[in-house]
Design brief:
Length: 342
């Protein structure tokens, strides 16, 4: 049996639709685009360990931090900017997410209907989808990296080949470096699919190879212990970052200064004869620094009431930051275990 709406219901539906279109138009016309020149990016850098990791760690940290500081797509939360509207804007002209949450009141003597009183495009739903996408990408990266590490640690022919053919290490390092610079400096590359996934995939493969070579110089039980400790630390820090009321997103400048200090320490340590105490201190400071970076990047991704948040269209870059933080923690933990056994 066909249902024929009453005249009053037709008037209500027509009014709601027209009100919705009018509201959406006003939002588009009055939206404020964030100033990308004042935004910055932070990320982490991994190390390669072994005989040359003391050179590679400070170099890569310095390069990525110096480049990253110019390009971070972080935006102020409305509560931190006197309740200005938060608009994550796509430079190609499409609004990735605007907090369009105006409740439309039905006027004209009809009254307010609880079922149709508002169309709430809440940022929370998009942020949750963004977080799920970031962690899906991150888990894929970590699984690939774990597979490479396992191969290099337990498959003797692969381990011997990598140690005898050092050119492969430098080829992988060059690929990693190029992909990192491109994704850090070129916003369109890291936002446009499938280009962003291609560069991220190449970076992950190169980084996984480097970590595999690094892990091959350690005993297998030490590597697996480092993997377990890293997993426990990262899980604990992630839960802490999501639950704590302290806002770490305002610590970008402090973390950058700490990274420069770590860089100088690492450069000085290169010229110091092998010393277990120096290695333990250096690796411990590095693990602590990138543990804080993991909290920082997690809160940037979560958004919410934090002072800064990363744009939902930057899911690849958010995953890259977390991935780099985690592998840095891993390589420093592995260094600590190796130095403690010497």
């Amino acid at each position: 049996m066909d249902f024929e709406p009453s005249k009053k219901e037709k008037q209500l539906n027509s009014f709601v639709v027209s009100k919705f279109l009018k509201t959406a138009t006003e939002k588009i016309n009055t939206s404020e685009q964030p100033n990308y020149n004042t935004m910055y990016q932070q990320g982490g850098l991994s190390a390669t360990g072994g005989a040359i990791h003391k050179v590679v760690i400070p170099l890569r940290v310095a390069i990525h931090r110096r480049v990253a500081i110019l390009r971070k797509v972080a935006i102020r939360h409305p509560e931190a900017t006197h309740h200005h509207r938060n608009q994550d804007f796509n430079p190609r002209g499409m609004a990735a997410q605007a907090t369009v949450s105006r409740h439309m009141e039905v006027q004209g003597g009809v009254g307010e209907d609880a079922d149709v009183k508002g169309f709430d495009f809440n940022e929370q739903s998009i942020r949750k989808s963004f977080v799920r996408k970031v962690y899906a990408i991150l888990m894929s990266q970590l699984l690939v990296t774990l597979a490479f590490i396992t191969l290099f640690v337990y498959h003797t022919p692969t381990k011997l080949w990598a140690q005898q053919n050092t050119w492969s290490f430098w080829v992988a390092f060059a690929m990693m470096f190029i992909c990192l610079i491109v994704m850090s400096c070129c916003g369109d590359v890291r936002r446009q699919s499938p280009t962003n996934f291609i560069f991220l995939g190449l970076f992950t493969l190169a980084e996984s190879f480097l970590l595999g070579v690094t892990s091959s110089v350690y005993q297998s039980d030490a590597v697996m212990m480092a993997v377990g400790i890293t997993a426990a630390i990262c899980l604990t820090l992630t839960i802490f970052a999501m639950q704590t009321k302290y806002d770490f997103t305002a610590m970008g400048g402090i973390l950058l200064c700490a990274t420069v200090v770590l860089l100088l320490f690492g450069l000085i340590a290169i010229f110091i004869p092998r010393n277990t105490i120096v290695t333990l201190v250096y690796a411990s400071l590095g693990a602590l620094l990138f543990s804080i970076y993991l909290i920082y990047d997690t809160q940037l991704m979560m958004g919410g009431k934090h002072k800064y948040s990363i744009s939902p269209e930057e899911y690849v870059f958010a995953a890259l930051n977390l991935y780099l933080d985690i592998i840095n923690i891993f390589i420093y933990i592995l260094t600590i275990i190796g130095a403690a056994r010497d």
